[in-house]
Amino acid sequence: MSKKQKLLFATGNAHKLTELRQVLGQQYEIAGLKDLGIPTDIPETGVTLHENAAQKAQYLYEKLGTPCLAEDTGLEVEALDGAPGVYSARFAGPDCNAEENMKKLLNELEGCPNRKARFRTVIALVEGGEMTFFEGICPGTIARQSKGDKGFGYDPVFIPEGFDKTFAQMNAREKNAISHRKKAVELLARHLNNHSINFRK
After folding, report:
1. Which fold has domain 5-194?
2. Which residue, 43, 55, 97, 122, shows the most beta carbons closer than 10 Å to its own?
3. Which sequence spans correspond to the domains of the chain?
């Protein structure tokens, strides 16, 4: 039986770590920052999702010297010219929580007929000094009010295209079948399966 490949993922977000594990499956052993004993406050000073993902992956790679992954995800709302985008996690301020972010978003869109939005995930893989990116997009709309208690972040206000319920009203299997992160991870998995990468020191 072949051993699992170990992937190092530059995140302290338990929800994102769980999603990545669920989508990639049993073939990979995925370690997050807490598993590695590394502080989770990696700098994110980029102005794009690509820049932030690359910054986090490079930071971990320079510390450990082995191939590393990082991702950045943003909710892009058409009527807000793509905001909150790269600032999704801190839309309502530097110390805000998910509820405050959603409240600000719904307030900004109050009375607005255009509810089009999309989630976009960018994954960066750094190995051998080279950076590769994988992007996934899930189009949808912003609900008029928060619904559901599953998921995390903006999930209670995001209705994926073709559905009449929010991500937070879906179970993990339903969400992972269509999510932006799933699409990016599928491209990552295809890359890993087609390349001989040594993930162990």
Report:
1. Maf protein (3.90.950)
2. 122
3. 5-194
Question: What digits encode the pLDDT tens for the residues 49-93?
Answer: 999 999 999 999 998 888 899 999 999 999 999 999 999 999 999
- Which residue type does 85 have? G
Whether 72 is catalytic? yes
Out of 72, 81, 149, 164, pick the active-site residue.
Answer: 72
Amino acid at 130: E
What is the DSSP pairing of strand 28-31 with strand 84-85? unpaired
For residues 26, 185, 35, 149, the Cα torsion angle rounded to the nearest 10 degrees is -90
